[in-house]
Amino acid sequence: MIRFYFHPTPNPAKVALFLEEAGLPYELVPVDTSKGEQHAPAFRAINPNGKVPAIVDTEGPGGTEARVFDSSAILLHLGDKTGRFVGSPGDRPELLSWLFFLASGLGPFSGQAVHFQHAAPEKLPYAINRYRREVERHYRVLDERLAGRDFLVGESYTIADISAWGWLDRAARVLPGETDPLAAFPDLQRWFARIDARPAVARARAVGKDHAFKKEMDEAARRALFPSNYPPAAA
């Protein structure tokens, strides 16, 4: 059984999509990051970095536990475990390259674009421009890769596509003000529509809908979400 530590944000959404695509049984464990639940010692024992997603994958009754954090690591773990969505053996170098590109580029730059446009106390034009332009550059890299292709790697749907979908599903929040943030990237737009039409996507979007996550961005939430912005508590 897999315990899946979840909050309704892009990186956990990738893992939700894999689980729904593969039909793997899992127990959903909500982690309300706006309440600071990601900093609880029990969760830090699973992910010392205090971020979601994370999983605890138990093999058989009384079996050993695999604790895996970071969405890319989880996708690789589950892909290798099941043999699903990892392409052919010859695809492995490109699969890793695109997965790491998404993990080190599209994801963090999209996250910073969201932060400086929606969460930062000051609207800093330089920071907003920097991260929006970098997101657009990453979109362009993906658009060029997808010219004449249905999937990012090889001839089949893989964890690279699942990973990319997680943040591209939030393109309107990453690049607010655009009527269609993907319109300037037609091959990426075509690819996204193809992935987004998969039945598992609707199921992944429904994950956690029955849990009342905190939505208010009050001072407690800011301290929980951005603890490095605050001085450490006195000993």
From TrEMBL:
PROSITE patterns: GST_CTER (PS50405), GST_NTER (PS50404). Residues 88-217 form the GST C-terminal domain. It comes from Tistlia consotensis USBA 355. This is GST-like protein. Residues 1-86 form the GST N-terminal domain. PANTHER family: DISULFIDE-BOND OXIDOREDUCTASE YFCG (PTHR44051:SF19), GLUTATHIONE S-TRANSFERASE-RELATED (PTHR44051). Transmembrane segments: none annotated.
